[in-house]
UniProtKB/TrEMBL annotation:
SUPFAM superfamilies per UniProt: P-loop containing nucleoside triphosphate hydrolases
Protein name: Uncharacterized protein
Top-rank taxon: Bacteria
Alphabetized SMART domains for the sequence: DEXDc, HA2, HELICc
Cited PROSITE patterns: HELICASE_ATP_BIND_1 (PS51192), HELICASE_CTER (PS51194)
Pfam family, one: DEAD
GO molecular function: ATP binding; nucleic acid binding
Length: 862
């Protein structure tokens, strides 16, 4: 069959022999994803090197590999294969490998130390989607091309790509590009909006199932032969943000489907390959209503679609609370146009947008590297050779924001994943090698036998971004759930119990989610070497909740949250359980969390006692809903309870030291204070303790500067001596050239900051160690610091005193060395009431201009 992209075959094959990266733009359905890989495999023929095709979604990998293999009369994995996470369908004979972005990154990491590329060519498909993995893959390959490290051809394809901008970005890195365009056939699409008073102005999840059902009914009625005799009525494609919304719309469409002979079909990345193949096959008897995530924008081609119903929503990855999360947000204008275009592939079509025409979307979707934290980007870049300066110098299509890079490096250095030069450490490589993101990987590395299995099960469940338990009104299901979850008092252990021993029918579980979670858990258990390799075979008792919470707090402390103070007060006024979501926070983000109620048989509700709901814990999963922006409202799930004490022991929250008391103990100073820890406005710890380390530094500095008396007269007069020294230091540091022959070391900002630094340098750990120090230990050695002689230092001290007193009149002397001025201000009542100082009695001040300031009056004395 002839496809539009076939027109550029000759020029494409010619471009493959050149050094420049090739950019191919062609509409969806024009054949670029199926033709170009095969052309590359033939043109770049190598006995042992396949062509790598990078696809943004696993559904595209599986469907493309399956369709091409079927066309050749082969099984998947022979000459055409795919690799997605935990599913490898390739062999030694495979010449074209379709791989998701995460798998492709691991394959590129494997070739880091190779002298030449492991691939005959690389094609990055649907480049316009611009996930951070796609941008990183491009940077890695372009860096290798720029340094002439290999001659592996690079092809970038897209249906909607700003080629001029991409070419300009690469040209700035000294890389030329070769652009080819294939013009596909498209028909006009009539676009309409829902401007009814009850309809939301912006794309919204509110009442989405009902609005989709109404739009499908109207489309079916409009396409009926009675109204349009010449219209056969094509299939309908509904764009929805996720699997949950797809399931809800499937139920809402049941009546409409039976009335109009429609067949609702789900299309999303979680479908098993056989069901996806069935979904993509054209129906002969019924019009289909495809309920699809944004995989149908570009990743798969659905035959026969003539009507698109667009919710205007998608789940996009953003960063909140120290980790990446999925947020439901309005799509940008470029995605809206892409979705509408799916209605005009076979004949004139229409697109119904479920929002008002008044809504003004963003023009384009920002690349992911501009809107997420970059911890995972730096980790995976590092194992591919782009760490340290190489990361900054890489030919990025979009430069990662400098501030985000700096913050990610700070966190990774603190986690020992990067060294001080931002280069990968062994721990960083361990994190990057695990087939999950960095946040999840931290839960798995260095796990002992008691925690390895449950940690893998937990990570597998978190990958779903949804729970296993479905809604049910069945009394039998409630009985079965209650029997399985006897003694389980939290959502995390309930989900893990269902993962290990649940049955979709008996326990009312989502079958596809359960199957996927078990597959991931098994793979992770094998990866980390857990003692039991399948969750369904794991009959070990769960570790005590407190132990598992401590294990996780060591690895992912940012998930720790507390119930907000206002919710605590609300609970205190009620005798019955809350029965509604409650606000939890870690101080940076706030999440709405539903309290967990263990399933109980209906008859047990009569004797049900109020549940003792937790007030602290780890909120291990969250998602965001936003109708007009990213992350407007956060919802948390998978709450693992813990105690306030566990959070305090983990060092969480802000520490506040109350009024400190100094006393003598065994002849040495002893300093105690009430130390409080507060997390998100809630006090999680309050106890009197002997101060140590940094907490002690601050109090000792306060005591010294306040002139407090230490036991045995320790540090008597240290306040004035330190202040005098710092006054001189500031004067000498500001002294103008060319008179200065000493070093210009900057003076401390304040006496308090200086003492804190000094006490830290001295290694002070406990108040008892103060007895080993003397006042001179706390003073700066200006002779050594500035390289000035002791004699000259004494002269400066005489000529420029910090305090000057004459006949009972005391003054503070502020010296402005750069402008050669001295300002005197009264320091006691006698000076405030007295006359201006007599110039004849003033200190020398080395011919500086001297002023007297009293209240708002300034007088020049000399």
């Amino acid at each position: 069959m002839q496809l539009p992209v076939d027109e550029i075959r000759a020029v494409f094959l010619d471009a493959l022999s050149g050094p420049a990266p090739i950019i191919v733009t062609a509409p969806t359905g024009s054949g670029k994803s199926t033709r170009l890989p095969l052309w590359m495999a033939d043109a770049c023929d190598s006995d042992d090197k396949p062509v790598l095709v990078v696809e943004p979604r696993r559904v595209a990998c599986r469907s493309l590999a399956g369709w091409l293999s079927e066309q050749r009369g082969e099984k998947v994995g022979h000459s055409i294969g795919y690799r997605v996470r935990f599913d490898d369908r390739t062999s030694n004979q495979t010449k074209v490998i379709f791989a998701t972005t995460g798998v492709a990154l691991r394959m590129l990491a494997a070739q880091q130390n190779a002298k030449e590329s492991l691939f005959a060519g690389v094609l990055i498909d649907e480049f316009h989607e611009r996930s951070w993995q796609v941008d990183l893959i491009a940077a890695i390959l372009l860096a290798r091309a720029k340094t002439k490290r290999d001659d592996c051809p690079l092809v970038i394809t897209s249906a909607t790509l700003d080629v001029e901008d991409l070419s300009a970005q690469l040209a700035a890195h000294g890389l030329k590009t070769h652009h080819l365009e294939a013009l596909g056939r498209s028909f006009p699409v009539d676009i309409s909006y829902i401007d009814a008073p009850a309809a939301p102005a912006a794309p919204s999840a509110q009442g989405l199932e009902r609005r989709v059902a109404d739009a499908v009914r109207q489309a079916a009625q409009l396409d009926s032969k009675a109204n349009h005799p010449d219209d056969e009525g094509g299939d309908i494609l509904v764009f929805l943000p996720g699997k949950g919304e797809i399931n809800g719309c499937m139920q809402a469409l049941s009546k409409v489907a039976s009335q109009h002979n429609l067949e609702p079909v789900a299309v999303h990345g979680g479908l098993p390959p056989d069901k996806m193949k069935s979904a993509l096959a054209q129906s002969k008897n019924k019009r289909r209503v495809y309920l699809s995530t944004n995989v149908a924008e570009t990743s798969v081609t659905l035959p026969g679609v003539t009507t698109v119903i667009d919710s205007g929503l998608a789940r996009m990855r953003i960063h909140r609370g120290g980790r990446s999360a999925l947020a439901m947000v309005p799509i940008a204008e470029d995605s809206m146009d892409q979705r509408a275009g799916r209605a005009g592939r076979v004949r004139p079509g229409r697109c119904v947008r479920l929002w008002s025409q008044r809504f003004r979307p963003s023009t384009t979707t920002a690349p992911e590297v501009e809107r997420i934290e970059l911890d995972d980007v730096l980790l995976h870049a590092g194992v591919c050779g782009l760490d340290g300066d190489a990361f900054d110098d890489a030919p990025w299509v979009t430069e990662p924001p400098e501030f985000a890079v700096a913050e990610a490096r700070r966190r990774l250095i603190a986690a020992d994943a990067l060294d001080d030069q931002a280069r990968m450490t062994d721990k960083g490589r361990q994190l990057a090698e695990l087939p999950v993101d960095g946040h999840a990987a931290r839960m798995l590395i260095s796990a002992d036998d008691t925690m390895a299995g449950i940690a893998c099960d937990l990570v597998a469940l978190l990958q779903l971004n949804r729970g296993l338990l479905g809604q049910t009104n069945s009394r039998d299901v409630h009985h079965e759930r209650a029997a399985l979850l006897t003694g389980v008092d939290n959502e995390v252990y309930a989900e893990i119990a269902m993962l290990r021993a649940g049955d979709p029918q008996r326990h009312g579980l989502h079958a596809s989610a359960l199957r996927e979670a078990r597959q991931v858990a098994t793979s992770l258990r094998e990866w980390v070497g857990a003692p039991i390799l399948k969750p369904t075979q794991d009959t070990l008792d769960f570790p005590p909740t407190a132990d598992f919470a401590r294990y996780l707090l060591e690895r992912i402390p940012e998930t720790a949250c507390v119930l907000r103070e206002r919710a605590l007060k609300k609970r205190a006024t009620k005798k019955t359980p809350p029965g509604q979501s409650e606000p939890w926070s870690n101080g940076e983000l706030e999440l709405s969390v539903w309290p967990y109620d263990p399933p109980r048989p209906a008859e047990a509700a009569v004797d049900q006692k109020p549940t003792d709901y937790p007030v602290a814990g780890l909120v291990l999963d969250h998602f965001w809903l936003g109708d007009t922006g990213i992350g407007v409202r956060g919802t948390g799930r998978m709450l693992l309870p813990c105690s306030y004490a566990a959070l305090a022991d983990a060092g969480l929250g802000d520490e506040a030291v109350g009024k400190a008391e100094m006393m003598r103990k065994h002849g040495a100073p002893h300093i105690v204070a009430l130390v409080e820890r507060n997390l998100a406005g809630v006090t999680i710890s309050a106890r009197e303790e002997a101060l140590r380390g940094p907490k002690l530094f601050k109090v000792v500095a306060d005591f010294i500067l306040a002139g407090r008396t230490f036991p045995g007269g320790l540090f008597k007069g240290a306040d004035d001596k330190v202040r005098e020294d710092l006054h001189l230091w500031s004067l000498l540091a500001d002294w103008p050239e060319p008179e200065r022959y000493w070093k210009c070391e900057p003076a401390p900002i304040s006496p308090h900051d200086f003492l804190l630094s000094k006490l830290q340098t001295l290694g002070l750990q406990s108040a008892q160690e103060l007895a080993l120090l003397e006042t001179d230990d706390l003073r700066p050695d200006l002779v050594d610091l500035l390289g000035i002689t002791a004699y000259d230092l004494e002269r400066f001290a005489d000529d420029f005193p910090r305090h000057w007193e004459h006949m009972g009149h005391a003054y503070i002397c502020t010296v402005q060395a750069a402008s050669r001025k001295v300002v005197l201000e009264p320091a006691n009542k006698k000076a405030k009431k007295g006359k201006d100082p007599n110039p004849a009695h003033l200190p020398r001040f080395r011919s500086f201009s001297v002023y007297h300031r009293k209240a708002s009056r300034i007088v020049k004395l000399r």
